Every structure is written in structure tokens, then in C-alpha cells.
């Protein structure tokens, strides 16, 4: 089932015909995963325990293991992500303080493996 295309922190997108752009398949799953790991617990008023709140780790020294643990726990709660094989979360911290999060997961519907990598 399609949903509105909305990249976390962005605006609704307009399609080629001027209608609101829809996301489905892997694009929708990526959208859901990003929303889950970047939403702060308590911010989603319909489900107060939703979200990993990874922004809480900005400026925290030596937090890659904690980031990975929180992200992994939230990935296991996302219904768009297959439980088996379990999602793999890799966090690397650069010398400049940049943190790169790589989420390797299997789409629960298509059963395709995907990797979503972004900088916190």
C-alpha cells in the first residue's frame, strides 16, 4: 500500500503530474525506517514509546555502541522490516565527530535485502 512520499525532515514531494508524490515498495520501507530511528520517543502523540531518538546522541563522545543498540532495538519493532534475518546495524565514528549509521535489513514484504546509510 502506498503512502505519501515524505523524507524525514523534508517536505511533501510533488510528482510529474502535479499531484503529491507517493512512496511504495522499498522507498516506503526506507521512509518508515528513517522516521522510526530519527523520531524522539514522546514526539509521536499516538504512540509515545515510538522512535529511537538518535538525535539525543549528538555531541556525546564515544556513543557508537549505544547508538547501534538503540537503532537495532527499534529496527526489530518496525513491521516493514523482517525479523529474520535480524537487521544488522553498523555505526562508525570519524575523528571529526561525524557518525555514520548503516542499517542492513530485509524488507518484510518483498524479502529483498537493503542497506540504508546516513550521517547523524
UniProtKB/TrEMBL annotation:
Name of the protein this chain belongs to: Phage tail protein
Superkingdom of origin: Bacteria
